[in-house]
Amino acid sequence: MTDIIADSLTRIRNAGMRRLETTTLLHSKMIEAIVSILVEKGYLESFSIEDLGNNKKAIKVTLKYDENEKPMINEIKRISKPGRRINKSRDAIKTFKNGYGTLIVSTSKGVLPNDKAFELGTGGEVICSVW
After folding, report:
1. Phi-psi domain of 113 (left: phi exceeds 0; alpha: psi -120 through 50; beta: other)
2. How far apart are CA 69 and CA 27, in angstroms?
3. CA distance 91 to 79
4. What letter would DSSP give residue 72?
């Protein structure tokens, strides 16, 4: 597996389609930052980091559903891929889906949602989009 970010987004998407309560992701600092943004924005309920031994960790994610048992994540999509990196300027990431969605951006100030990156006046690599 070469792209663990795409794998993690696919696991979250598939768990939502199957109406699962939790799913487990491979651990990296980037994935932990992405999941914490998704929890902060209200797309996921919570997450915890589990130690698997042998210096390996996993992230257990609790999914969030609305009152009609529909997942809060309508679409989660990888934008910048290992074969083609997509960078956007500060003005290009100002809004996504008229404010209903979120772009997760890797900037020089860390991994941020598009609104915070715009406030800080920085652009960067667009990792994924969620709405």
Report:
1. beta
2. 28
3. 17
4. S
Q: Quote the CA–CA distance of 130 and 100 in Å, as a whole number.
A: 9
**58-99 per-position pLDDT tens digit:** 999 999 999 999 999 999 999 999 999 999 999 888 888 777
pLDDT of the residue at 1: 64
Give the pair of three-digit tokens for residue 122: 């920085």
Q: Which CATH number fits domain 4-130: 3.30.1330.60, 3.30.1490.10, 3.30.9.10, 1.10.1060.10?
A: 3.30.1490.10
79, 3 contact by CB (below 8 A): no
What global pTM score does this model have? 0.92
122 in helix, strand or coil?
coil
Measured in whole angstroms, how far is the alpha carbon of residue 53 from the centre of its chain? Answer: 25
The single-letter code of the amino acid at 24 is: T
